[in-house]
Amino acid sequence: LAKLTGNATYSDWATKSYQWSNGSGLVENYNVFQGTSVRDCEEIDHSQWTDNAGTYIIGAAYMYNVTDGSSIWKSTLDGLLNKTLTTFFPDGIAKELCEATGCPDSQHIAKGILIRNLVDTMSITPYTSSVILPVVRTTAVAAAKACDENRCAFEWNWKETNSSNDLENDLSALQAVQALLSEQNFQAKAGSGDVSGGIAKPSGNVGNNLRTGLMSVIFGTMITVLL
């Protein structure tokens, strides 16, 4: 909302929300945890999921863009991004921490949400493509290999497809594969910056890029449902 409306109130509340997340322990050392107790917000659920991390990353990317490259939001974005890539991309492939023991069905769409947010982050803050694109590429290949003629598996680092009948798995894999559709555009805008240094100029074409990405998601989702 801060990006789309230019209303400073939304920016102020985004800052307050992130500060509260840090103060409450919901975010600690750039690890994003699942939640807190409703009554007093003192009991932290320390489980970690890809979609939560992606939500904070895209939020920080928007704030970096809105504030014209604020050093505070750059360090926040870089910290969240580096921690997420370290935690959820072993061998460069997106993975939930619970995959070794089994994940709840409600989280089968989460990796797709993270990938979508990473793609949008590259559009909003092009300098991040230097570290995001490599894992997007390897994840896309792995996700495609995890699909058979009809369905896709939840886990993408297996040597066999292990497909299921969960639509969430199909949508998540679709997000990973179609993330490469705008790769050339990201590379052209990335410049020479990287996550550890340099500040990229915020993109002036965010609206067009997001609309293009949204249409890709909608079109791809329709195809998957029809299949």
Helix and strand arrangement:
Blueprint: H1 2-5, H2 8-24, E1 27-28, E2 31-32, E3 35-36, E4 44-45, H3 50-66, H4 71-88, H5 110-124, H6 129-145, H7 167-178, H8 183-190, H9 206-226
Antiparallel strand pairs: 1-2, 3-4
Helix pairs in contact: 3-4, 3-5, 5-6, 5-7, 6-7, 7-9
What is the structure about, briefly put?
It is built from 9 helices and 4 strands. Helices cover 57% and strands 4% of the residues.
Description of the structure:
It contains 9 helices and 4 strands, in the order H-H-E-E-E-E-H-H-H-H-H-H-H. By secondary structure, it is mainly alpha-helical. The protein has one domain (2-226): Glycosyltransferase, CATH 1.50.10. The strands form 2 sheets. Strands 1-2 form a two-stranded antiparallel sheet. Strands 3-4 form a two-stranded antiparallel ribbon. Helix 3 (50-66) packs parallel to helix 5 (110-124) and helix 7 packs across helix 9. The longest helix is centred in the last third of the chain and has 21 residues, at 206-226. The chain is globular, with a radius of gyration of 17 Å. One of its GO terms (biological process) is carbohydrate catabolic process. Belongs to the glycosyl hydrolase 76 family.
Oligomeric state of shown chains: single chain
Tell me about the biggest sheet?
Answer: 2 strands, antiparallel
CATH topology type? Glycosyltransferase
Report the CATH architecture. Answer: Alpha/alpha barrel
Structural class: mainly alpha
Rg over C-alpha atoms, rounded to the nearest angstrom:
17 Å
**Mean pLDDT, nearest integer?**
79
In the sheet with the most strands, the strands line up as 1-2
CATH class term: Mainly Alpha
Number of strands: 4
Number of helices: 9
Helix percent reads: 55-70%
**Spans of 5+ residues with little confidence (pLDDT < 50)?**
190-227
Structural domains: how many: 1
Secondary-structure element order, N to C = HHEEEEHHHHHHH
Bulk shape: globular
Taking the alpha carbons of the first and last residues, their distance comes to 35 Å
- Per DSSP, what share of the residues sits in E-state strands of 2 or more residues? under 5%
